[in-house]
Amino acid sequence: MVGISLTGIHYVYLAFIVFILTLMIRRRDTTMICVAGLFALGFLAAETLVGSVSGVFHSFIYATKELMGTIMIISIIVAMSRVLIRTGIHETMVAPLTSFIKTPAMAFWGIGLIMMLTSFFFWPSPAVALIGAVVLPVAARVGLPALGAAVAMNLFGHGIALSGDYIIQGAPKLTADAAGLPVSSVIQASVPLVIIMGLVTTSVAFWMMRRDLKNGTWRDGLVAVPSAAGALRGSDQDEGAPPVLTRNLRRALAVIIPLLFVADVAAMFMFRLQGGDATALVGGTAVFILVGVTLLAHRNQGLEKVTSYMIDGLVFGFKVFGPVIPIAAFFYLGDAALTELYGAVLPEGSQGIVNDLGMALAGVVPLNGAVGAVTLTITGVITGLDGSGFSGISLAGSIAQLFAAATGSDAATLTALGQVAAIWVGGGTLVPWALIPAAAICGVSPFELARRNLKPVLIGLLVTTAAAIFLI
What we know:
By secondary structure, the protein is an all-alpha fold. The chain has one domain. The protein is 78% helix and 0% strand. It has helices spanning 8-25, 31-46, 49-87, 89-94, 104-122, 124-141, 146-164, 170-179, 183-215, 228-233, 236-239, 247-270, 275-298, 302-321, 324-332, 336-342, 353-364, 369-383, 393-407, 411-429, 436-442, 446-471.
């Protein structure tokens, strides 16, 4: 493999990676450049205009097939979340936890932990609406500022929970596929990084909040914005009166639904379910919850409402992953997709474009694990600037594979580091347009929330990168 010579395909692929990074730094959309990259690689591989044009479409299909499980689980979770919100079951589920919130400090950590646990199962954006309407008034009564609540929801949900994504496993699936690794290895490698990042970031944010409140320098950034919960709840004028459940039935369902997901977690450990199998179990459970609650709540209209909620969830899922498909299609070509779509177009003995580039890089640049770790963090930060968090983690996985091949470092740890950095920045803690749900539900400016998160997240990234250097 060391003797593999690079071809035009390798250099074109590398050039387009640079183009994509440049656009992300400038906060521009990458779809067009990814399509151009797919066309250019297809033309070099197929050597015909028809083959390259067709290759763009086939690459989209390949990426969609790879991502479909992730898209579906998120769509189903959102559909289920919407019916729980509209029926008031979510309020009953969270209400008992609010009795433990007595002080601003308890409110900050309590909201954060509730948000984290909910986000593991529902993802952060639905979780914001699921818990915000109930927990925030309680936090306000004990003196926690609205911006402090938004910081807690943001860091614990869009930071800790989403960067690990241990239940739904959408993030590790994307990065693991791009790096050519099993999902389980990326998940295991991410655990210490997620813990370190989470502890450092939330502790610094809490200390800064207490300091500024004490010194009188706190700015809450209150604004009048639409409710994020309302976006998931939908328009009651358009859909008729909200569905009504009896108090006892809401209480029963508020107990049964969490128990069903706890049973899923127990089954994952008992039967050693990971990756797609674990996701399928959670997704199937969510479908049954969606159907059951909808039929109970809407009665005669239940059959039609099940379809309506499913459509709402699918619209949300494809809206979130629409920008991801083109960039994922391009980066999949760096590994197995190129051979599957175009045949054996690389030199004999090639292990894929990314691996070949890694070995070539090792021959000309004295690299080491520390350089690789710093590079992955920077790559994650840059790719997160588009505000998606997910559109760039395929790139992080590919670059992790490249550096691991070049330095002999632990590919899983490098991949997990890139994933953590990309999602903490772009998943909704630093980029203003990505943290609108948490800002909206709390009624604060997303720009003020991003400013408040900046120092804690940057300090967390520095400490986590240093820890990763020792782990690889």
